[in-house]
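Q: Got a minute? One more chain.
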Amino acid sequence: MAPSQFKDLNVSVKDEDPHLRSRTVPMKVLVLGFPRTGTSCNGLRSHHGLNQTADMVLAMQMALEKLGLGPCYHMRTAMNEYPRDNEMWLEAFQAKYDGIGTFGKEQWDQLLGHYSSVCDVPAAAFGPELIKAYPEAKIILTNREIDSWHTSCSKTLQRARKYWLHRMLRYFDWITQLVHSLREKQWQCLFADDFEKNGRRAMLAHYADVRRVANDMGRDVLEFHMGDGWEPLCHFLGRAVPDGTYPRENEGGDWILKMQERARLRAKAAAAKFLRVGLPTVILGLSLGLGLLSSHRTCNIRASLQTVGLAQVRTCCSWALQPTR
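A: Always. Here it is, folded:
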């Protein structure tokens, strides 16, 4: 399959059960702002320069990894690389919102054990839980003006939920099915399945909840805004300001193109798997079925011979040789 123009889509899918993992690196940074908090900004400013139009959550992931605080877990980690993580995220949502099962430090270490930082949903949906699970981790909230944020989500995340190829593929592609199930559960739990009505209120409540829990535990929170750039981030994290401009991830049209490209790649993968596995299985099944039918017909012939005697051999053989209708 030809590589995608988007680098983060050119990763190998790993069929790995997260329940079998454990923590291998310390959790150092929790970025608990909602997705799209910083997109379509006027620029992310540093003393090395200015970048235009960026998605701040993705940019934050890139910045943390450049500062040596990665790898950083992002929603696209579960979407593109470790699809079975979606199953465990569903367990986390069920434990928190439905009271089904438990999800504590052991489970967080299994799910996020290979990562030194997290950003974006689904991790952001568990701000209080992660703050309590990792008392040494730094806490960051990415901020954006609420109406601008709401519009951005409506044009991107909402559109992805309704994209026709995604909705069709969930019936044929196991990865799309897992991602779709998590996305729908997430939307239901965070926004009561009505983002247009409840999105703004949910965002305000989430940010207040993170600040309250952090304050109760005596933890500092970096309120990161559009245009802040390297300086406040590096000061908060105790890191030297690196050379080069603050990272940026293109927003708007590129986001939609990437979403559509991801769906096309999954459609190609599903079609290739059908040709490689599904079609031979169908052919084998038809062959076995016809073989059983032929065997059943042979048994009928033998029974007929025993019943009617040799006088009916010619009639039975003539019947057996007739083509199947």
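A: The radius of gyration is 28 Å.
Q: Perfect, thanks.
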